[in-house]
Amino acid sequence: MDAALDVAALVLVLLGALLCLSAAIGLLRFRDVPTRLHAATKPQVLGLIVICLAIALSLRSWPVVAFLVPVVLIQLATAPLSAHMVGRQAYRNGTIADRNLYVDELAESRQTPPAAGG
């Protein structure tokens, strides 16, 4: 049983490393902000979760699991928030091409500045 759990942990570490590598390659290769945000958040967070699961399987200790749960929860809380903030700032700066947007929910805010009170 221990050997099977070690093999599963090894496979999960390799899978997590591949996901994190694909996120890094996506950050370098993609051209526009929305696709880079996708590469920076989704595969990277999933890779971290898979690696944390592999660590928990490998060490088989409840204190380790108790340490890894907040790490995963903080990552799940901060990655979407930071991606949202970067996306909003890119929209405000005009670095997101309007032709790439299917629905522009912030079009009114572009016409009226936020501090104008309108």
UniProtKB/TrEMBL annotation:
Keyword Cell membrane: no
Tagged with keyword Transmembrane: yes
Record Pfam families: PhaG_MnhG_YufB
Membrane-crossing residue ranges in chain numbering: 6-28, 40-59, 65-83
Single GO term (MF): sodium:proton antiporter activity
Superkingdom per UniProt: Bacteria
Keywords assigned by UniProt, alphabetized: Membrane, Transmembrane, Transmembrane helix
InterPro entries with a match to the protein in the record: PhaG_MnhG_YufB
UniProt-listed PANTHER family: ANTIPORTER SUBUNIT MNHG2-RELATED
Similarity annotation: Belongs to the CPA3 antiporters (TC 2.A.63) subunit G family.
Descriptive protein name: Monovalent cation/H(+) antiporter subunit G
